[in-house]
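User: Batch of two.

Assistant: Item 1 of 2:
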Amino acid sequence: MYSVVIGSQGMLGKELVAILEARGLESVYADIAPGDGQVKLDITDRSAVSELISKYKPEVIFNCSAYTNVDQAEEQEEIAAAINGYGVENIALAAKDNNALLVHISTDYVFPGDNDKPYLPGDPTAPQGSYGRTKLLGEQLIEKTGSNWQIIRTAWLYGPQGKNFVETIVSLAKTRDSLKVVNDQTGCPTWAPDLAKCMADMAKYGKTGKYHFCNGPQCTWYDLAKEAVARAGINCNIEPCSSDEFPRPAKRPAWSVLDSSETYNAIGWQPRNWQETVADYVKTLNT
């Protein structure tokens, strides 16, 4: 499998690069701010995307790039849409022109967040904020291109290659006696190395469509914070609170649990639960 990884310098992109290299698969790595031996690419430049994909003619295009600042997107929806929407369309059009499979990452924020059971890939979408709207736009534009695609929605991503909630909480807990964390938002944390492995395996699976991938089981941000601090062995009291106590520019979904069972069946394995991956991760933070 010969591939192009777009967004190779992000938290997920770095993990995917490591997976592909470990498997001995030949790939080209591209990013707006590329690393050594990587290619510079601005996905909002349609001609640049077309030229790169036409030059390398990959079998698979992995898109890990995105505008991910949820709160800032409320003021910069046009910029977020250029990246999460029309930039993604540029990649999908290039995939179609070169008969490549596009494996694209999307988000739980495309859903309204008012469900009482895990969201299935085919459930109705209704994003509540700018970030979710721009990510849904990307999904819709991919479908309209008629390319071969897999859209993998995920949530609450954390890992060693980028800033994330777990790292932030552990860092804050080292300097404070107590922390308040919201306990009225429920979702599924996702370990970035597992998502990267899923992407590589889904590309081999080849079947197009929408999928979900997270580590289980469901929890709240409070649950995740409390577990991370306990696993890190830090003496800090984690207190539950409501979202109203921490108002943010963008509304967060109260419920964003994703049903990943179809994806688990497709790839033939199920990831470890998030408590185990958090335990491994905080060991690296402590060193």
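Item 2 of 2:
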Amino acid sequence: MKITILNSIKSELLKIQHSAALWLVGIGAIFIPVIMLLMQFAFPEKTAEKNLSDNFWEGYFNESWQSMALFLFPMGIILVTSLLTQLEFKNNAWKQLYTTPQPMSFIFISKQKVIFILMFGFLLLFNLAIYVSVLIPALIHPKISMPPEQLPILFFIKSSLIFFVDSLPIIALQFLISMRFKNFLASVGVGFALIIASMFAISWKYGYTIPYTYISLNYFNNIGIPRTSVSNIHLLSVAYFLLITFVSYFMYINRTEKG
């Protein structure tokens, strides 16, 4: 039977069915909305007034992304990417994987695409949780009503896709690191150090040179506090992603140790 890239992706998806990556995606996506839900019950009068404000959904969306953009989303990408990329290291299964009738390029692409699928799933669940966190108080608490403003679905989709684009360099670089280090803690440690460095670099005028800052820089642009002079960090993000992916692929197919 001819192996296609779709078969390889399906195979990678089967591997993660019982992995911690799915739990990380699920818990990470609802963590901030659950906190905001509890805050609404704790301050019902303030919540009722806030729900009637202009541009409620846009403000609530940006508020939800505050902690997510600065730390939780990048850290989630690092953990999920490291877990998925290193499944074969954990199970000592690289040699078995290379005996399957699929080219190395399929293995590389399918692993990366599964990470994309999980990140899209994360963003979808996160957006759904944002809406539900507003809906539940309105259904339960007598003082709180739903915002009269219609839910701007296109705004949610567009803004989430931009955050995804800005996350691409982190995915690519963490993928490269995880493929090179057999130790899970080592790859996570490097990624964590880069996140911390990016937090300090946000206020630096050349902070845009560090791709781990792009999610945070996009968040600050959304709330009207630009932290960079670069007109389009999203194009820069795509460029970094393509460069890092090319380097990662070249290193992967030319590795001397096959497993």
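The chain has a mean pLDDT of 88.
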